[in-house]
Design goal:
This protein has about 50 residues and is mainly α. The chain has helices spanning about 1-5, 10-15, 20-30, 40-50.
Length: about 50
């Protein structure tokens, strides 16, 4: 597991200074190309979902 984290650019001090849930959230995050880049599109989606 330590080697996987290092390969993904997560240093030991970052690992030990964060919680397990923080690590899981980071590992499960969408890749940059799959994220919404347009802030207006993000706002529109939030508003259309009942926000």
């Amino acid at each position: 597991m330590a080697n996987q984290l290092l390969e993904q650019g997560i240093l030991p001090e970052d690992f030990y200074n964060s919680s397990f849930s923080d690590m899981q959230q980071a590992l499960n995050a969408k890749s940059r190309k799959d994220r919404i880049q347009d802030p207006y599109e993000l706002a529109r989606r939030v508003m259309s979902e009942g926000g």
